[in-house]
């Protein structure tokens, strides 16, 4: 009993720290961290003991029950918010796979590292192995893995996306376009080029808006002086940093800005003109030596159907046209 009382006191102290932290602004809107996390993102049927403590014990990028999974998907985190409705629509067509789907939504480059490590991954104090049946990323990355023999071609190309500037609600810094991002003293939250493919499209877009000078200002000068914060894991850190007041703007996928608006989070979208924008093309393929190639093919076929397109269009994704 003394141990239980001590634990309760310790948890109470932790809660007081959380409430006093900058993330309180986020909690006041949605009551959880990350702000979009909810049980609907977990396709497991039997969840057993649910132990999720925001900011302390949270596996937001790992979804489902790996125990008897018949379909393991490595999905680049660019459309993490679309995966729950996609899985639900897929399971409606294939009820034999309900509760048997496991998927990850970490950055594509990190998924490749995990794949090269035999599916082995460690988060906090937990280590497990999840070998993928299919991999999804940008078309160029998928083609490279096909050429390397890691994936089986041809690629399935199923959606497109464009960029937008995300700012806190009310746009307090008065951002109007990409050129404003070079402003001295303006703190940016930007995807890390080391493992986030979207950084390539962002640099291309910056170059269209302000030549190499704007690219260097955002990704070199401001990184050096500390006013460009590079994400450590994925660009989903951008909206959190904006809501915490750590940054005033960041470039991300337009679909993510639409999702943030739809769920009522305190962010806004600044559209980038077509002539300055860049388009991402999403593709996927079955992994070589996949344990469940037939199920992976079912998922790839599903992504090309009307049900999947309806989900993608909800968040502003386009249909691929060569």
TrEMBL record:
Gene3D superfamilies: Periplasmic binding protein-like II. GO terms for molecular function: molybdate ion binding. SUPFAM superfamilies: Periplasmic binding protein-like II. It comes from the Bacteria. GO terms for biological process: molybdate ion transport. It holds the Pfam family SBP_bac_11. The keyword Cell inner membrane does not apply. The keyword NAD does not apply. Residues 1-25 form the signal peptide. Keywords: Signal. This is Molybdate-binding protein.
């Amino acid at each position: 009993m003394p141990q239980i009382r001590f634990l309760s006191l310790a948890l109470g102290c932790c809660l007081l720290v959380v409430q006093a932290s900058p993330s309180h602004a986020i909690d006041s809107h949605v009551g959880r961290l990350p702000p979009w996390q909810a049980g609907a993102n977990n396709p497991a049927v039997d969840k057993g003991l649910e132990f999720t403590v925001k900011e302390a014990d949270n596996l937001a990028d790992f979804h489902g029950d790996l125990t008897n999974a018949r379909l393991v998907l490595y999905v680049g985190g660019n459309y993490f918010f679309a995966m729950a409705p996609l899985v639900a629509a897929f399971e409606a067509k294939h009820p034999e796979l309900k509760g048997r789907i496991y998927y990850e939504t970490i950055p594509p480059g990190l998924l490749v590292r995990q794949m090269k490590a035999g599916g082995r991954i460690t988060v906090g104090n937990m280590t497990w192995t999840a070998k993928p049946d299919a991999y999804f990323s940008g078309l160029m990355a998928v083609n490279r893995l096909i050429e390397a023999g890691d994936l089986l071609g041809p690629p399935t190309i199923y959606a497109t996306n464009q960029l937008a500037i995300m700012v806190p609600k009310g746009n307090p810094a008065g951002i109007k376009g990409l050129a404003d991002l070079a402003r001295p003293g303006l703190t940016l939250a930007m995807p890390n080029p080391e493992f986030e493919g979207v950084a390539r499209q962002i640099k291309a877009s910056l170059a269209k808006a302000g030549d190499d000078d704007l690219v260097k200002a955002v990704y070199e000068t401001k990184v050096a002086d500390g006013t460009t914060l590079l994400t450590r894991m994925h660009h989903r850190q951008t909206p959190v940093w904006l809501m915490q007041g750590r940054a005033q703007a960041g470039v991300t996928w337009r679909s993510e800005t639409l999702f943030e608006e739809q769920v009522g989070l305190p962010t806004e979208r600044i559209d980038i003109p077509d002539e300055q924008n860049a388009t991402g093309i999403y593709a996927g393929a079955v992994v070589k030596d996949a344990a469940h190639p037939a199920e992976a093919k079912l998922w790839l076929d599903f992504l090309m159907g009307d049900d999947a397109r309806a989900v993608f269009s909800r968040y502003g994704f386009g249909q691929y046209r060569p």
